[in-house]
């Protein structure tokens, strides 16, 4: 009887860890670095402000520059131990619609660092700060 309880407890611990999602909640843009044809550009809050909401199955974001609407988009995502894989299902950037991107990520305290490489080249690197947790 004690052995069955141990197995059940161990299974619950592993299942609980498997479904834990550190990205759930609302995130505010801190800064980013983006590839261009001429090199890289950077952006920082408050000149560029963005909020990204991560639910159990979808992401969405809205971005402003100097108080003016710039971008919005979202769609479903998948998460594993090292990648946040988002698919753009809607938004106002036609080149992103239907595109799937796999960002490597790490969480440090309240900061979410994510980086996108394509063909060995840095495409995007951003830092977001958690401002609310979905419970």
Labels describing this entry:
mainly beta; 60% strand; 8-stranded antiparallel beta barrel; 10 strands; single chain; disordered N terminus; 13% helix; 135 residues
Described by strand count, sense and barrel closure, the largest sheet is: 8 strands, antiparallel, barrel
Give the strand order, joined by hyphens, for the main sheet: 1-3-4-5-6-8-9-10
Q: What is the element string, with H for helices and E for strands? A: HEEEEEEEEEE
User: Per DSSP, what share of the residues sits in E-state strands of 2 or more residues?
Assistant: over 45%
**Number of DSSP strands?**
10
Give the distance, in angstroms, between the N- and C-terminal Cα atoms.
35 Å
- What structural class should be given to the helix and strand makeup? mainly beta
Helical residue percent? Answer: 10-25%
The number of helical elements comes to 1
Unreliable segments of 5+ consecutive residues: 1-17
User: Average pLDDT value?
Assistant: 88
> Taking Cα atoms only, what radius of gyration do you get, to the nearest Å?
18 Å
- The general outline is globular
Tell me the quaternary state.
single chain
Quick synopsis:
This protein is mainly β and 135 residues long. Helices cover 13% and strands 60% of the residues.
What does this protein structure show overall?
The protein is globular. It has an 8-stranded antiparallel β-barrel with strand order 1-3-4-5-6-8-9-10. The protein has one helix at 2-19, and strands at 25-36, 39-44, 48-54, 58-65, 68-79, 83-87, 90-91, 100-108, 111-118, 121-132. Residues 1-17 have low confidence and may be disordered. A hairpin with a 2-residue loop joins strand 8 and strand 9. It is built from 1 helix and 10 strands.
């Amino acid at each position: 009887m004690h052995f069955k309880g141990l197995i059940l407890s161990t299974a619950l611990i592993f299942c609980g860890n498997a479904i834990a999602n550190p990205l759930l909640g609302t995130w505010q843009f801190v800064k980013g670095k983006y590839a261009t044809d001429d090199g890289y550009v950077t952006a920082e809050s408050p000149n560029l402000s963005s909020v990204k909401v991560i639910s159990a199955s979808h992401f969405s974001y809205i971005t402003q520059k100097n108080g003016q609407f710039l971008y919005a988009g979202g769609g479903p995502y998948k998460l594993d131990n090292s990648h946040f894989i988002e698919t753009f299902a809607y938004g106002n950037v036609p080149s992103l619609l239907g595109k799937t991107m796999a960002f490597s990520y790490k969480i440090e305290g309240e900061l979410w660092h994510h980086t996108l490489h394509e063909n060995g080249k840095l495409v995007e690197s951003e830092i977001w700060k958690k401002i609310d947790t979905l419970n």
